[in-house]
Structure formats: C-alpha cells, structure tokens
Write a structure and sequence with these properties.
It is found in: Cell membrane. By secondary structure, this protein is of the alpha+beta class. Helices cover 55% and strands 19% of the residues. The strands form 2 sheets. A 4-stranded antiparallel beta sheet has the order 4-5-3-6, with helices on one face. Helix 1 packs antiparallel against helix 2, helix 1 runs antiparallel to helix 5 and helix 4 packs antiparallel against helix 5.
Length: 232
C-alpha cells in the first residue's frame, strides 16, 4: 500500500477526478451551490492528502529499516492527515447550507461534499473496491432514491391579499393539489385608509408531480390576491 510507483499515483489521481466528476455532475445538473468543479477538487485534494500520508509512512518504514539501531526514534501516525481531512472538510459543507424562514437548504450538497472527500481518501490509499461501490451507492442515493421513495419538495409560498377570508380559498386550492401546509407566518399591515393588507408565508410540502406554475396561476385568479410568489 505504502510503496507507490508513479503509475499508481497517476491512476489514483485520475480516478479521483472521475469519481468527483460523477457526483459533482449530478449536483450541478440540479443547480446546487457546489457543482462538478468543487466535488472534483475536494476528491483530488483528499486523494493527495492520502497519497502524502502513504509516502510519509513509506519513508519512515524505510528509514527505520536502514537504521535499525535507532528504530522508534522516527515514527509516523498513519491516520493523522486523514483525520484532518474528515474534520476540515466541514467548512465547505457549512458554506452550502442556508437557513431562511425556518427552512434549511443545502444539507444534501454538504453531505455529498463530505462523502466525496471520503471517496478521495479511499482512492488515495488504494481501496478501489470501496471507492467504486461507494460512488455507486452515493450516486444512487442522489438520483434514483427520490423516485423509489415518494417525497414531496419543501417550498415556500408568499401571498399578499387584502381580505383575510381569502385564506379559505387558498387552503381549498392547496388541498386540491394535495399540498400539505407545514408552517404559516402572517404579517399584517394597515394602510392609510385603515384597510388591512395580509402577507402570508406558507411552508409547503409539494408532491413532485404538481405543476407549480398551474398552482400559482390558480391562486392569482382570485381578485383578493394581490401577489403570489413560489420560492424553492
């Protein structure tokens, strides 16, 4: 494992580009904060750290064999650099996580970055089977799993209206589209003439098959609704 030849080093680095590119392509295709380039760089970086760890360990072993009288004077921790990758990659993951109005986004991308770092370490150490099956499982989890286990998307719906009774109409429309309301925030403003304007922010679980543009159009048909915006 530790005595690396130049072809082995090249193969592992190229494999890291390929593995990081596969996961990164899926994220970039969905316009996520971290795309192909980020995942490739993370995977290559982790692979390089693992390769350096291998070389350091190899040099230490060779030195001890060459100087048996001072065996133990020079040692190498075979997991120290690897441990720093696992903990240090967190700053990238944190940069992809966004929390707004009680909604958290970017967790999946953060997890994919962390997972790709693990794949890079596996390749750097030469664990090709672990890297191959790990890549396949991660890619499956990001793509096919959503279709096998039906899960709705979490969206936020902002509606401005001038009549509180209109909320009944809104709930009827949401029920028609089989949309569940997870949370509701209401802001009330009073105009100069004394009339009230309501801004309602719904957090919704929207089934994947729902045409969101049709939902927005149907809500905006009501005369009491001044403004409709759907946020992903």
């Amino acid at each position: 494992m530790f005595n690396l030849t130049q072809p082995e080093i090249i193969i592992r680095l190229v494999a890291a580009i390929f593995v990081g590119g596969i996961i990164g392509f899926e994220r970039e295709r969905k316009s996520r904060p971290a795309g192909m380039k980020t995942h490739i760089l993370v995977c290559i970086g982790a692979c390089i750290i693992a390769l350096i760890q291998c070389q350091l360990t190899s040099m230490t072993v060779d030195y001890n064999f060459a100087h048996p009288k001072i065996v133990g004077a020079l040692s190498a921790d075979t997991a120290r650099l690897t441990a720093q990758v696992v903990s240090g990659i967190g700053f990238l993951g944190a940069g992809t996580i966004i929390m707004t109005n009680k909604t958290v986004k970017g967790l999946t991308t953060a997890a994919s970055i962390w997972s790709v770092a693990g794949l890079g370490l596996a390749l750097g150490y030469g664990y090709y089977l672990i890297a191959a099956f790990g890549t396949a499982i991660i890619f499956f989890s990001l793509t096919a799993l959503a279709y096998l286990i039906p899960m709705g998307n979490i969206n936020r719906l902002e509606i401005k209206l001038n009549e509180h009774q209109t909320t009944k109409f809104i709930k009827q429309v949401l029920k028609k589209f089989h949309i569940d309301i997870e949370n509701t925030d209401v802001t009330i403003k009073r105009d100069e003439d004394g009339s009230r304007n309501y801004t309602i922010m719904y957090t919704l679980e929207v089934p994947r098959k729902v045409d969101t543009s049709e939902l927005v159009f149907e809500l905006s048909d009501n005369e009491q609704v001044d403004y409709v915006r759907l946020l992903e």
